[in-house]
Design a protein that fits this description.
The chain is α/β, with parallel strands linked by helices. It has 15 helices and 19 strands. The relative contact order is 0.09. It binds ligand PMT.
């Protein structure tokens, strides 16, 4: 995609470099339009090196090729980060006294802005009004975050983190094929308490489940995320229920499931829990050289959901297996979907360096007959989108 990144003159302009980098690494052709003020905060060579394209600033450059409209006309998406109070006011009014203003007016592409300014400016009635005007025109506003500002002060006005700006910007380009759908995703790893300070757990970070939840939001779904001990931050764009143990996860999932169209069980769920939880810390002086734990089976949440699902509801399970041989791995996946009764099963290989906690994943999606309906490899975001493609195909 051709993405124009507008950089305007605030101290947060240095963070625009990471926004540009994120968009380039996601495979997009990025063209930077920087205001004169922006170039007082960040150097043109930096923006050119990171964007891998010439940076445009001057309204009167490239007149022969009608650059003041050509950049906007060619854009698939315009992202302005940071967007100062001044730029926001100009956009709201439709001013075109610089190249960025002309670019936005000459474009039919969706616009995403990431405001950054001091709290007083962000909360000023003029800015509040201007943001309202832009929102009513369909502009996506990302942030600002609440936190440390340039000086000693802190509050709302800090530029949203570059990764989040990239994610929100790319979400605008997603197909909106899940509008009106409600989706429940479980993520993370359950922990089974042994005593007040120890637990049996697993290494799930919640990255794959969160990627699914974010992708579903981007495609228009209303999402509930049941997160077990997540190591990742959750955004405000979804309802999040935090849980700890398998029984807590089961209760949260079972409470939410009747109201949704799709359940995706990406959480790594403990099959067993200690039969009893010690009231006080287990002492080695008392336990001695060997400690035997008696474990009892946890309920199979996925199998239960599949058994009681409403007509038309789609249940998606995961299978985490360490098997190295592809055919043997597929056989385990086929046996698992037959046992659990889900509509789809996302089979991924896990190990010391695979699946758990990593940024990437490789999956095979099976249907109830055991047929492969999709295979995907890449970032957990990419994989999440492909899994949702398989879900959307089932709706069709
Ligand atoms: O969180 P990340 O670090 O990003 O890692 C992602 C992941 C590897 C955890 C994820 O991709 C994944 O594989 N999740 C499922 C892990 C798992 O519990 O797999 P399983 O094969 O043990 O269980 C099969 C299915 O039954 C899963 O959908 C699981 O949620 C569900 N289950 C398991 C046990 C149980 N008692 N109740 C269940 O519902």
């Amino acid at each position: 995609m051709n993405i124009v990144v507008g950089v305007t003159g605030g101290i947060a302009a240095y963070k625009a470099v990471n926004v540009i980098r994120g968009l380039v690494l996601a495979g997009h052709d990025v063209h930077v339009v920087a205001t004169d003020a922006a170039l007082r905060f960040v150097g043109k060579p930096t923006l050119e090196a990171i964007s891998r394209n010439i940076v445009h600033t001057d309204l009167y450059e490239g007149v022969a090729e009608v650059r003041h409209v050509a950049i906007g006309q060619a854009a698939d998406l315009i992202v302005i980060a940071p967007a100062t109070a001044n730029t926001i006011a100009k956009l709201a009014t439709g001013l075109a006294d610089d190249l960025l203003g002309n670019t936005v007016l000459a474009s039919r592409a969706p616009v995403v802005i990431a405001p950054a300014m001091h709290t007083e400016m962000w909360q000023h009635p003029a800015t509040v009004h201007n943001i309202g005007v832009l929102r009513s025109r369909g502009v996506t506003v990302v942030g600002p975050a609440v936190g440390q500002l340039t000086g000693a002060d802190s509050g709302p006005g800090r530029l949203e983190e570059p990764d989040e700006i990239v994610r929100a910007a790319l979400a605008v380009l997603e197909p909106k094929d899940l509008v009106g759908r409600r989706i429940l995703v479980s993520a993370g790893g359950t922990r089974e308490a042994l005593d007040p300070v120890r637990y049996l757990g697993n290494r799930s970070s919640g990255k794959q489940g969160l990627a699914l939840a974010l992708a579903a939001v981007a495609r228009g779904a209303e999402v509930t995320l049941v997160g077990a001990n997540l190591e990742v931050q959750t955004p405000a764009s979804m309802r999040v229920v935090h849980v700890g143990s398998t029984l807590e996860l089961a209760a949260a999932v079972q409470a939410a499931a009747p109201d949704v169209d799709v359940v995706i069980m990406a959480a790594a769920v403990a099959d067993y829990r200690p039969e009893s939880v010690a009231e006080a810390k287990i002492k080695k002086e008392i336990a001695g050289d060997r400690l035997t734990l008696e474990l009892v089976k946890n309920p199979d949440i996925l199998a239960g959901l599949a058994e009681t699902r409403a007509p038309g509801q789609i249940i998606v399970g995961f299978a985490a297996e360490t098997e190295q041989d592809r055919e043997a791995l597929l056989a385990l996946g086929r046996a698992k979907i037959a046992r659990k009764g889900s509509d789809l099963l996302v089979l991924n290989r896990v190990g010391w360096t695979e699946g758990f906690g990593t940024d990437g994943n490789t999956v095979v999606v099976l249907d109830r007959r055991g047929d492969i309906v999709m295979e995907a490899s890449g970032s957990k975001q990419t994989v999440a989108d492909r899994i949702l493609d398989a879900v959307v195909a089932r709706f069709a």
